[in-house]
Write a structure and sequence with these properties.
Layout: H1 4-25, H2 31-55, H3 60-82, H4 87-107, E1 133-136, E2 141-143, H5 148-151, E3 158-161, H6 164-169, E4 173-174
Parallel strand pairs: 2-4
Antiparallel strand pairs: 1-2, 1-3
Length: 179
């Protein structure tokens, strides 16, 4: 379920159902005729909306078409019990029941997966505050954060100092790249 063929089949079956409903309505007179015409116009509008939703693969279209076909089934069954059964009314009942079954089957269907490209990883911009120096826990030297020696120190072994003086107070010596 969930392709354009489904919406075409539902369209054809609803068309047959509406033909039977229209035929039955035009055999009425008085206020019943006007009430049924209003119901028919409402169902037509909702059917167009449901078909557009089905065409665009929105699963709510199945829910809406199931509700429409259920109301049409009730209406056609009323005509069946009140009026005599003719071939068009029988075809309308069968096609509307088919729409109802197709719609109920399509309600639990999965939404089509939209393939999207993964978001690009943001670039990490490394900024260093002037004066900061880094050392390894096991080293006696400290380095500038941009130096190749500083980049080799693993994250867990890094010790950061706010200034050269702080590193010297901790017993570290400047590496030849710092001088």
């Amino acid at each position: 379920m969930g392709n354009k063929t489904d919406s075409f089949v539902v369209l054809l079956l609803l068309f047959v159902g509406f033909l039977g409903l229209i035929d039955s309505i035009f055999n009425m007179n008085g206020w019943k005729f006007y009430a049924e015409v209003l119901v028919l116009l409402g169902l037509l509008f909702l059917s167009i909306l449901a078909l557009l939703l089905l065409w665009n693969k929105v699963s709510f279209g199945y829910v809406l078409s199931a509700c429409i076909s259920f109301v049409m089934l009730l209406n056609l069954l009323l005509f069946y019990f009140v009026a005599s059964m003719d071939t068009l009314l029988f075809l309308a009942l069968v096609s509307t029941l088919s729409v109802f079954v197709l719609s109920v089957m399509g309600i639990g269907g999965k939404e089509p997966e939209v393939k999207s490209k993964p978001a690009p990883k943001p670039k990490v911009i490394k900024t260093y505050t002037s004066g900061k120096v880094v050392s390894s826990k096991s080293s006696k030297y400290y380095y500038l954060p941009t130096s190749s020696q500083a980049k080799k120190i693993s994250k867990k072994n890094q010790v950061w100092y706010d200034s050269d003086e702080d590193a010297k107070k901790a017993g570290k010596k400047p590496h030849s790249s710092v001088i």
